[in-house]
Design brief:
Family: Belongs to the TRAFAC class translation factor GTPase superfamily. Classic translation factor GTPase family. IF-2 subfamily.
Largest sheet: 8 strands, antiparallel
Strand content: 25-35%
CATH architecture of the largest domain: 3-Layer(aba) Sandwich
Distance between the termini: 125 Å
Keywords: GTP-binding, Initiation factor, Mitochondrion, Nucleotide-binding, Protein biosynthesis, Transit peptide
GO molecular function: GTP binding; GTPase activity; translation initiation factor activity
Strand order of the largest sheet: 29-28-34-25-26-33-30-31
Radius of gyration: 45 Å
CATH topology of the largest domain: Rossmann fold
Protein name: Translation initiation factor IF-2, mitochondrial
Subcellular location: Mitochondrion
Length: about 700
Amino acid sequence: MLRISCLYRLPNALHCSQSFSHWKQAPATFRLFHVDAARLKRRKTAEEKKSPRIIEYSPKKAQPANGLPSGGSEIWRHMSVAQLAKVLQRPVDDVQEAMLYVKGADNIEPAAKLADLKMIQEIAKKLGAKTRVVATPEASCEDDQKERDVTPRPPAPPELLQPRPPVVTVMGHVDHGKTTLLDSLRGADVAAGEAGGITQHIGAFTVTLENGEQVTFLDTPGHAAFSAMRARGAVATDIIVLVVAAEDGVMAQTREVIQLAKEAQVPIIVALNKIDKPEADIEKSKRELAQMGLALEEHGGDIQVIPISALKGTNLQLLAEAVSTQATLMGLKSDPSGLVEGIVVESKTDPRRGKLSTAIVSRGTLRKGSVLLSGLAHAKVRGLFDHNGKPLTEAPPGTPVEILGWRELPLAGDLILEVETEKKAHAVLKYREHEAQQEKIESSSEEIRKKDEEHQATYRAAREARRLAGRFRMRGGQRVKQVDENEGKPRVSVIIKGDVHGSVEAILDVLETYSSNEICRLDIVHYGVGNVTEGDLELAKAFDAIIYAFAVETPQNKATKDVNVRSYNIIYRLIDDLKEQLSSKLPPVEVEEVLGEANVLQSFIINEGRKEVPVAGCRCTKGVLKKAQKFRLVRDGEVVYDGQLESMRHLKNEVDSIKKDVECGLRLRDAKVLPQAGDILQCYTTHMEAQQTDWDPGF
């Protein structure tokens, strides 16, 4: 066989199909084959196959000379004109000029927001730039959120200020006559033609004096539990009327009020009440006030002291004149125009009218339809009422007013600010909720870190234990049940419902003073303002909790039979009941009661059968010695023996008890213990007694 190979290297395929006529007679084989560059590739050697594979990438494309991204400038919805100029790398003037030729781009201010993406793209097109839409940058979101928050306005110019009624807070110790004084002032108000009474839940009312001036009074409780409420009253007021009973003088809450007034720099007028009582001592009360650092007028100071009798109405006119004089000297003025500013005095949930708040307007004039913000709550005012429940059309500065229309319940003491529209109110709330969430995360980050460290330490210890035990020793073993450290401890779960926010806050402040959770846990399952609802009952069933209803209504149906609901309207009675509940959960303790004592006069040995046993000759010096009870032998302050007696004799007769000043012989059950002269033998008994909680709420 004849094989022919063509070894021609051509750029294109070479077809070898030549016929050799002179070889026709010989048996020959002709092969058609192709030759190109790919078929001439050299094979790799063994060393080249072992070497790592190297991947070569093509070089990056060069950036444009103007510095803009090759895909175009990044734009987003609601970007400002200044931000658009920045991303296009053009002066703001160029962008503003291009906006003049774009339909709908009317506001060309640098801070103006561009909500339409097509408009932004058209502006960029006019400037010869390509664009691509991206998500709003986080920094831009933060800037927008900061712009959405609202703050109080700067001080008004003097020409806009007008006189306003003074805000006077009546403060003092519990049961010193604050409520009686307010009732007497209300009576004077009724005599002047103002009908109606004081609603205690509002805590604020207006009195018209004989000279026609109006005064806004705030009522604050005097109980020790309401210190936070008194602090709010001191901040929101212009003048403090400190009520001091002439029979008691300066008490605990009196000192607290004086300290609050000094911190808030609020002037004080002292009303010495109950001067009609025979035990009243006015001079002693004045001396105690001077010792507290109050500069009284009779000592050359500026603090007025008015002796009054709120019950009989003595010198009430002098007190009103003193308040009016102090207000005139202070020159209280406010701006009645513009957006409203105020402070929340109290808030509550009415079962018929919904969420209500009592506020004092400090600036602007509040009207129906106003949109208000207070913390994380907002309202569109649907109704305004005075302290008598009468509707108001407007509330000028210095006026206490009850506001109807809150979506959420505002917190007492929070600032109230008016905004132009509900849309802006929602934007501000969104920003404030975001800030509150960030603060919560930051405050809990340290606790999360500690928990993580504890978990890591536990995990490493368990891993080391498994390593030391070996791979197969830990397998197949019973899994250890994880036990909660609080499991098995007594527990009292409570749900708090109150009539107003201040009452709930005061109760929670008292519960925070409980510090015996290692003995009996006190869990607050839920708290809120308003009547007890079906949801509260279901929650109480799930957690086996007690519902404490403070001055609110409770449902009267079958659902309440399985739930422990307790109603109170006095805070210290509620706390006393809770202390009883905590004490009932504690296990009984063994209590020791000493029945009598005896002095060892002499110790001697007697023969009891074949044994010699020690006997203590004693004289009973206190109480009664009973043979059946336990005895304790004390020597130099140390207990030598604690147990039963074997024998008690008097004049060789076995007896069951020995009275005081009677001598006897006592033989201990343990014959190894040798009594000595001068030792003391105590006879005592033990019994189980219910344990009382050591919680001291401070009142």
